[in-house]
Each structure stands twice: as C-alpha cells, then as structure tokens.
Design a protein that fits this description.
31% strand, twelve-stranded antiparallel beta barrel, 403 residues, 14 strands, alpha+beta, 12 helices
Length: 403
C-alpha cells in the first residue's frame, strides 16, 4: 500500500509564455494568444505538494503538515508569489514558465528541504486555472491536464441488455435525463520533453472544440453516430472521448465527471476506473497519551484542543476493473454509493476518539483515518478498491493506494 499526504498552497504571479527561439506565429500556435502579452499575464496558482512514506506508529503522522506549509511556503514567498516569473525568478530566464515547467521547478526547489525527513516529496501538482493543470513526479514523469465542460441528455441503458436488466443495473437513470459534464484530458511523458509543451495550445483547442461540437447540448442516445448501438454510460462516454482523440493528440487517459461526486476514467492501456465521493462530519482531537501536554501542544498545535474540534470530511473511493462491452458498466452506481455510505456510517456525527473503536488507542490523524477506512470499504467492494482519498480540509488530503 502507498500512503501519501498532500498540502495545498496558493500564490499569485504573472508570466509570459514565449520562447525567444520561436517566431511570433510559432509562439501563438504553441501557447495561444497570451504569448503576445509583452509584460505577461496573471494567474492565481494553487500548488499541491505530495509526500509519501510510512506514518510514525506513535503520532500517526507521515509528516507534520505544518512543516510542509512552512518550508514550501518560504520557497513560494521568496521566488514565486507576486513575481513576474520570467524576470524575477532566475529559473525562468531561459525556460518558459508553463504549468509543467513551474511544477517541475517547484519540485526541484522544495525536495531538498526535506532530504533528511522520513517522508519524501514524490510529486507537485499545479493548477493555474480551472481548465489547466500539470503534475511533475520525482521519477521524472510529467502530466499536462486540460478540462472542458459540456451539457448533454441521455438514457443510461445498454442495447445488449433486456429492459429488466437495464432497470436493475441503472435504476431511474434509464429514464431520459441530463448532466453538466466536466472532462479532463491528460497527456503524460516519462520526462520533460525538449519542446516547451506536450501539445500545442492550437492542437488542444481544436480537439476540445471538436469534442464540444459532438457532445454539447446533444442527446447522446440519438445524436452521436459513433455510439449508436452501444451502451450509453459514464464509462462508455469517457472511453469514447479517449478513443475519438487518439489519432490527434497522445491522450494517456480521460476523466469524466457527470456530477461532482461521481466520475469515470478511461486509460489508453484499456484500464477503467470509477470514483465516488461521500461527505461525513465528525469531531476529533489529535493527542498522544504518552506525551506530555507541552509535547502534544507543540506537535499538534490547535488540533490538540482538549475539547476537540471537527471537520466536514470528504472521502473518495476509486475502484478498477475490466470494461464490460455488454453492459458498458464497471459497477452498479447505487451499490458503489451504498458501500461507501455504509463504511462511513459508524463515524458520522461522532467524536472519533471518544465514540469509535478505531481511535481509542491511536491518534485520529488523516493518515490513520484513511488506513482504518480501507479494509472495511475494500471488503464491501469485493477487494476492488484501488485508491482511497480523504480531504480533512481543502488544503489537507490523505491518500492510500493499492500497489
């Protein structure tokens, strides 16, 4: 199992996407119209620093999240925040400050600050707008993400199933309904390429416009020729988006949200995944009984308040499996949602340390919560659970993966 802890840090900066080695027209095709802004344009960036390792058996922490904020935050304060990156940050004097290059540079800048710690910085994810983000990994891999929205109507059915089979698998979704979809296209390379981007902005814009033309404000059962006679599910639609663009740009996978709490992912290696989110509220106190009051206060800060505090947690379960050509479904939506709900039910509106068995003898850190939730949820899902995420706040995320 692989455990990671992610810390979110915001900063604002300006930058110009422009390479002096290229002509103005080449820059426009590569980076879009903002390449013509001579003094740069601005972004409110959000960086996520992802650490991996084994949690301390006594404190329950993989890493003290406040240390991430302090050390990484200092780098951002000194080199990135409220800077014109092309001129104020020496790393971008010759290197174009794309999302990919910024998150790679952040990883290179911050990783040495934790070289002596048990936890290791394994990735930095950078969101520059709701439509654009990138991830750099410690092993050298890089990902570029592009989001777009569309609205469409559909009936969730498979023509290969009988009416009773469709009703059993898809329930009320067999009736005509609609969604405001949100799709993410991901490109991946094993290392940062010599070119300034994994794909040109012109190519990406063309692909997204083509997909919108096909999908937006359409009835997917009737208006999409490529899906006639095939199942219409979130899984099949994610697969269609991936395969329809395979000859245009080298997509590695597509994530498709049909609602905020439910998504499907289709991968170029034929992998298929479904994710479900569920919210629950609980109180807790971070405390180690064998430590002195002073040591607990120093380690956990305000989270050690004797009267406790609480969170509106978000849990996200992702399962994997083989795409079923007959049904077009990876799992029953209601069964997935019910399994997650049942697994979380014993913790809802409880004080985790005082009213649950899991945390009577161990601190209720995010690391311990996600590790305690995994076995009972995995059992309910017939050992198909591949990833479990827990947001304690918008800034702190804990993830457990099957490896």
């Amino acid at each position: 199992m692989l455990l990671t802890v992610s810390k979110r840090v915001e900063f604002s900066a300006s930058r110009r996407l422009f390479s002096r080695k290229l002509s103005a027209e080449e820059n426009r095709k590569l980076f879009g119209e903002e390449s013509a802004a001579p003094y740069g344009t601005g972004r409110n960036f959000v960086a996520y620093f992802v650490f991996s390792g084994q949690p301390d058996p006594t404190t329950g922490m993989l890493i003290n999240i406040s240390e991430i904020k302090e050390r990484a935050g200092q780098i951002i304060h000194d080199r990135y925040d409220h800077r014109f990156l092309n001129e104020d940050n020496p790393a971008f004097r010759e290197k174009v400050p794309t999302a990919e290059n910024i998150c790679r540079q952040l990883l290179d800048d911050v990783a040495p600050l934790f070289s002596g710690d048990p936890a290791r910085l394994v990735a930095v994810h950078l969101r520059e707008t709701p439509e654009r983000s990138a991830t750099a990994y410690a092993n050298g891999a890089i990902e570029a993400n592009y989001w777009f929205d569309f609205s469409a109507a559909r009936r969730t059915i498979s023509p290969h199933l009988s009416a009773p089979e469709n009703e059993k698998l898809f329930g009320i979704s067999t009736g005509e309904h609609g969604h405001n979809y949100r799709a993410r296209l991901t490109l991946r390379a094993d290392s940062v390429p010599p070119e300034p981007a994994l794909a040109t902005q012109e190519e990406i814009s063309s692909v997204i416009q083509s997909l919108r033309t096909q999908l937006d404000h359409k009835n997917l059962n009737r208006d999409l020729d490529a899906l006639r006679g095939k199942p219409i599910t979130t899984e099949s639609l994610a697969r269609f988006i991936l395969q329809s663009r395979s000859g245009k740009i080298p997509l590695s996978w597509v994530r498709l949200h049909e609602r905020d709490d439910f998504f499907a992912e289709a991968w170029s290696d034929d992998g298929m995944f479904l994710g479900m989110r569920e919210v629950f509220s609980a109180a807790h106190r971070l405390h180690v009984p064998s430590f002195s009051d002073a040591k607990n206060a120093d380690l956990f800060g305000k989270c050690n308040n004797p009267r406790g505090h609480g969170h509106r947690y978000v849990a996200e379960a992702t399962i994997g499996g083989e795409y079923d050509e007959r049904s077009g479904a990876l799992a029953n939506f209601e069964e997935l949602r019910d399994a997650l709900g049942r697994a979380l039910a014993p913790w809802r509106d409880k004080h985790l340390d005082l009213e649950t068995d899991e945390f009577r003898d161990q601190p209720s850190t995010g690391e311990n919560i996600v590790r305690a939730l995994w076995p009972r949820l995995d059992t309910a899902l017939q050992q198909r659970l591949l990833r479990l995420r827990l947001w304690e706040t918008a800034n702190n995320r804990f993830t457990l993966r099957r490896v």
